[in-house]
């Protein structure tokens, strides 16, 4: 329907995707509890190490971006406004060691997603606490969600609270369960058998 009516919009929707009017909720775990008094964000692995409280993390230099998101389950949501802090800003403060090439962005309940550091350092990758001007809802990954617009949305870790820097690629939660390691929507990299 949208492809025929608006060619410009259709050009923003990758193959095999359809535009959603809402924001479907998909999670592999329960929503973790959030207490701003005890919440911590940590950087570990091949870095100097860093840790922030919720207030300290929110005090990092902020940025706003607008991006489209594409879920592997075939829906796309356009023009999402995000407020947060760039991944590159967090990484700089963590003091990444030169041998680090990849990262796992982690969340409670042993959830994580892997990406090369080069991809995470793009200027549109951030840890977001607001969506469309409102605090990010817990069901969508609040209080803090990684946003990686150039990949399928499972790479955008909900409830993010740690980065582990590595000198090798290590598949994350969905990747070890049969999803594609790279996850480029425009190439329809959905499943590991496509690799």
Structure explained in plain terms:
With about 200 residues, the protein is of the alpha+beta class. The protein has a single domain (about 40-195), classed as Oxidoreductase, molybdopterin-binding domain (Sulfite Oxidase, Chain A, domain 2). It has five helices and eleven strands, in the order H-H-E-E-E-H-E-E-H-E-E-H-E-E-E-E. Strands 1, 4, 5, 8, 9 and 10 form a six-stranded mixed sheet that branches. Strands 3-2-11-6-7 form a five-stranded mixed sheet. A hairpin with a 3-residue loop joins strand 6 (about 100-105) and strand 7. The longest helix is centred in the middle third of the chain and has 8 residues, at about 85-95. It is globular and about 50 Å long. The model has no long low-confidence stretch (mean pLDDT about 95).
Oligomeric description of these chains: single chain
| CATH architecture assignment name | Alpha-Beta Complex
Mean pLDDT: 95
How many H/I helical runs?
5
SSE succession:
HHEEEHEEHEEHEEEE
Offer a few descriptive terms.
single chain, 195 residues, alpha+beta, Sulfite Oxidase, Chain A, domain 2, six-stranded mixed sheet, 11 strands, 31% strand
Layout of SSEs?
Blueprint: H1 2-5, H2 7-10, E1 18-19, E2 40-45, E3 50-53, H3 54-58, E4 63-70, E5 75-86, H4 87-94, E6 102-107, E7 111-116, H5 117-120, E8 126-131, E9 134-135, E10 145-147, E11 162-166
Parallel strand pairs: 1-5, 2-11
Antiparallel strand pairs: 2-3, 4-5, 5-8, 6-7, 6-11, 8-9, 8-10
């Amino acid at each position: 329907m949208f492809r025929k009516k608006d060619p410009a919009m259709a050009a923003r929707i990758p193959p095999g995707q359809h535009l959603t009017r809402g924001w479907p909720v998909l999670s592999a775990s329960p929503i973790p509890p959030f207490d701003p008094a005890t919440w911590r964000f940590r950087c570990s692995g091949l870095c100097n190490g860093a840790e922030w409280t919720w207030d300290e993390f929110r005090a990092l230099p902020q940025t706003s971006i607008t991006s489209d998101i594409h879920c592997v389950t075939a829906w796309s949501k356009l023009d999402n406004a995000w407020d947060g802090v760039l991944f590159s800003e967090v990484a700089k403060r963590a003091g990444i060691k030169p041998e680090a090439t990849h990262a796992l962005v982690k969340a409670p309940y042993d959830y994580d997603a892997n990406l090369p550091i080069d991809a995470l350092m793009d200027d549109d990758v951030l840890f977001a606490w607001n969506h469309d001007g409102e605090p990010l809802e817990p069901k969508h990954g609040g209080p803090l969600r990684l946003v990686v617009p150039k990949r399928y949305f499972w790479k955008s870790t909900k409830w993010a609270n740690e980065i582990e820097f590595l000198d090798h690629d290590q598949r994350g939660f969905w990747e070890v369960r049969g999803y594609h390691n790279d996850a480029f929507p425009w190439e329809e990299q959905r499943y590991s058998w496509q690799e």
